[in-house]
Amino acid sequence: MTQEQTTYTAKDFSSDQEIRWCPGCGDYSILKQVQSVLPEIGVAKEDIVFISGIGCSSRFPYYLNTYGMHSIHGRAPAVASGLKIANPNLSIWVITGDGDALSIGGNHIIHLLRRNFDMNVLLFNNEIYGLTKGQYSPTSPEGKVTKSTPMGSVDHPFNPLALAAGADGTFIARAMDRDPKHLRTILKEADDHKGTSLIEIYQNCNVFNDGAFGVFTDKATKANTTVFVEHGQPLVFGENENMGVRLDGATPVVVDLESGDFSKEDLWKHDKTDRSKAGILMRCFDTPTGDAASLPRPFGVFYQEEKTCYEDMLHEQIKTSLEQKGEGDLQELLSGNNTWEIQ
Amino acid sequence: MEELKTTKHNKESKKDVAILFAGDSGDGIQLTGSQFSNTSALFGNDVSTFPDYPAEIRAPQGTIAGVSGFQLNFGSIEIFTPGDMCDVLVVMNAAALKANLSKLKIGGTIIANTGGFDKKNLKLSGYVDMRNPLEDNSLGKYRVIEIDVTKLTRESLKESPLGMKEKDRSKNMFVLGFLYWMYNRKLEPTKKFLHEKFRSKPDLIDANIAVLKAGYNYGDTSETFTTRYEVKPAPLPKGVYRNIMGNQGLAIGLVAASRKAGLPLFYGSYPITPASDILHELSKHKNFNVRSFQAEDEIAAITSAIGASFAGNIGITASSGPGIALKGEALGLACILEIPLVVINVQRGGPSTGLPTKTEQADLLQAIYGRNGEAPIPVIAASSPRDCFNQAFEAVRIAIEHMTPVFLLSDGYIANGAEPWRFPSEDKLKAIHPPMLKEASDEEFLPYRRDEKGVRQWAVPGIKGLEHRIGGLEKQDETGNVSYDPDNHEKMVGLRAEKIARIADFIPLQKVDQGEDTGKLCILGWGSTYGAIKTAVKELLLEGHSVSQVHVKYLFPFPKNLEELLKGFDKVVVPELNTGQLVKIIRSEFLIDAKPLSKVKGLPFTSIEIKDAALKYLEA
């Protein structure tokens, strides 16, 4: 990517198009945080491409003054893969939702992750189909009453991060629309990572699924229901940092730091390079009940690993082939190995 | 070359001979057939081949279901088909005979491996009471040459260190050697091939060559056969030739076109019969800056190609019926984006999984009409293995110069068929001009502003000042911004249609392939029926009939003069390997009372079928 000399501001990344999300939609915050982070990534505007699928969130590229494509439902990861192979210099951002990435495009997202193309995937999870006006999605909780599930959904929801880990994702993170500062940090870290960076972003659909993440985002409850993990730091949470998560063998347990039984030294220290522990962290997926023993929902970078990227390996092979065989000779290709002449 | 001694035999001259090799799918039939074809082509014969094999990789041995066939037609005259009926039927076992006897001309020759007619084989192939057809006089109408190939092969490998199983696998070489003797062919090309194929396994080279020679010598020394045949080189146009298979021609055509356009080639593909060979071939040519990507599914194959085209590569994908069906939505996307893309459909029998290894032409209407919304996409077709090269080049040219997805139709028959090809010289290939913007100008960039051809400009990510967004939503004229305006939508539908219609100004006018420009009967074909129609019309013309052959390669839009041309004939008959698709379009577009000639058996037309139908119309 060309290093841009001129300094951009967030405003340089807004397009002239009127934003048409519902007032109060969580997408506004995410758009704003992305526009704020883009000037910091050191990439020229013309080298940035946003690719989306279908859904409310997928209108995203229209609102950014970069290159962009609003493709078809679920296929953004595949479009982006071809784009990255064609031009590995581009900074590519895939914008997708829970239905787009995990239902109709489920196949593409897992293959993108395992191939580890160097790009960023922002998965807007609102646990509902918004654009089609309110059917349950593959992340909606069991029992969810929607237009298509009047008696409650009988589907078990996906755990998007565990799915990403199962597909050998190399950067797996969670953030939320209502915590802009944390979201910006994660966006920056995702962009710094070489490989496919997946960020699940909790996004409130205030029309069809208002408050789905309220328990994590509302000031009144947030401190006790969420834990923001940082590499090398103990898992501390609570109003006055009075709670912690300890690993009892492979089982995470909530402990009270004020009881005198445990100190921060006893807590689970987050190591984003530890695959097994990242797995345990991802499995902290039960909705906190408010009960003192109930585990908080983790946010932050769960897992990160260095791994070769598909596009680099492919272009390496092309380079090797050029070195070994030389630039392809078209006439030789046309002739083949066996010719004969008719006089 | 080591001189093989030959005793005196009668020599009979033949203009053309069709041989059908048949045996178990593990018998090396395809290899035997293609070796005989290559050797004959190198000798100077004109050749056309048709492999016919089961979908199962190794169907149960000895059964009818497991029979693999390879038919080839070679001659001292121009050859356009693998032959309707064969002159020689080579059968490695009883099932091969049972499955193919109906394809042998009365009076034709059967070369039978008696080792494949034991009780077990007779039972597996379903001969009543295990009666051996070689012994019950049921083959009286044919000349039967019985050879215990299995035994003779083992005999000639007595000294070889190979195991029995491996020895038996070279019995196809015995048959090949015998046929080389029968038709006076040199063993050199096959020897060379064996040396290359088994480079690291000298034992296998020695064994195969020993058996090949044994087969040749058997013909020479055995008293049974007194006739050898001579098929002289064909009077083909002067030039340098090679053999080409359809799928190979497609791949080479794509590479050549990408080179002539100065763009890297991106090939996104998911394996499917009978299109996979294009992926295999392209994957070998990385030093031509070919980026081949085996995608997770058919949809990713096409959408990754769209992504690559957005970045300024020429995005290409290929598949067959079921895969093409999956690509439908993305085709609409490429159409509304107005981005170059080539989609190749190597058609096979359908619907659904249908007949994966058999040929059909039943996807024409799908190619022209099979999308949601008003989504016009140019459709062209290849008519023979060697034509695959030209049409692949054309598909890329139209896609790039007109900023549109292009459908290229081939089918299983030409994909796997082979024929000699007088390949072009690189500098004779025309340059392709991408309407690509290199940098921003002072003028405001409007991604959907059009030139006089109705074509927009291609601005790829990486160019400063040309940042823009494209997508599948209807777009405002010129700006490309999302628009739901009713009048704008109608206008855009019109502009997209107009752009495709104008391609007719940039393709050749329709020519008459054989016969006069007007007359009683026009046989109008498209795609792989070319050879059978060519042969039939040639004979009809020699017999003095008023008949012409018109073969359409540009199916949408049609060449501008096609309507006028067809209206110069009293009757138009359209042979197709479907229940009547092109004929439907001709009738609806031109109000011409064209008649269908249909065949949907998973097999190509024979020239006799076409000739018979033509005669019926001529005599009516």
Written overview of the protein:
The complex is a heterodimer of chains A (343) and B (620). Chain A has 11 helices and 12 strands. Chain A has one domain: Rossmann fold (3-Layer(aba) Sandwich), CATH 3.40.50. By secondary structure, chain A is of the alpha/beta class. In chain A, the strands form 2 sheets. An 8-stranded mixed sheet of chain A has the order 2-1-3-4-6-5-11-7, sandwiched between helices. In chain A, helix 1 (27-37) crosses helix 6 (180-192) and helix 3 crosses helix 4. The mean pLDDT of chain A is 95. Chain A is globular, with a radius of gyration of 23 Å. In chain A, strand 8 (236-237) and strand 9 form a beta hairpin. By secondary structure, chain B is α/β, with parallel strands linked by helices. Chain B folds into 3 domains: 10-230, Pyruvate-ferredoxin oxidoreductase, PFOR, domain III (Pyruvate-ferredoxin Oxidoreductase, domain 3, 3-Layer(aba) Sandwich); 243-428, 3-Layer(aba) Sandwich (Rossmann fold); 519-619, Rossmann fold. Chain B has 21 helices and 22 strands. In chain B, the strands form 5 sheets. In chain B, strands 11-10-12-13-15-14-20 form a 7-stranded mixed sheet, with helices on both faces. The longest helix of chain B has 20 residues, at 202-221. Chain B starts with 9 loop residues before the first strand and ends with a helix. Strand 12 of chain A pairs antiparallel with strand 9 of chain B.
Give the topology.
The complex is a heterodimer of chains A (343) and B (620).
Chain A: H1 27-37, E1 48-52, E2 67-70, H2 76-86, E3 91-97, H3 98-104, H4 106-115, E4 119-125, H5 160-166, E5 171-176, H6 180-192, E6 196-202, H7 214-217, H8 219-225, E7 226-229, E8 236-237, E9 243-248, E10 251-256, H9 275-282, E11 297-304, H10 310-325, H11 330-335, E12 339-342
Parallel strand pairs in A: 1-2, 1-3, 3-4, 4-6, 5-6, 7-11
Antiparallel strand pairs in A: 5-11, 8-9, 9-10
Helix pairs in contact in A: 1-6, 3-4
Chain B: E1 10-13, E2 16-24, H1 29-43, E3 46-52, E4 67-75, E5 86-91, H2 94-100, E6 104-113, H3 119-124, E7 143-147, H4 149-156, H5 164-168, H6 171-182, H7 188-197, H8 202-221, E8 227-230, E9 239-245, H9 246-261, E10 265-269, H10 276-283, E11 290-294, H11 298-310, E12 314-319, H12 321-326, H13 328-337, E13 341-347, H14 364-369, E14 379-381, H15 387-401, E15 405-411, H16 412-416, E16 418-421, E17 469-471, H17 486-501, E18 519-526, H18 530-542, E19 547-552, E20 554-556, H19 562-566, E21 569-576, H20 582-590, E22 595-598, H21 607-619
Parallel strand pairs in B: 1-8, 2-5, 5-6, 6-7, 10-11, 10-12, 12-13, 13-15, 14-15, 18-19, 18-21, 21-22
Antiparallel strand pairs in B: 2-4, 3-4, 9-16, 14-20
Helix pairs in contact in B: 1-6, 4-6, 6-8, 7-8, 9-10, 9-15, 18-21
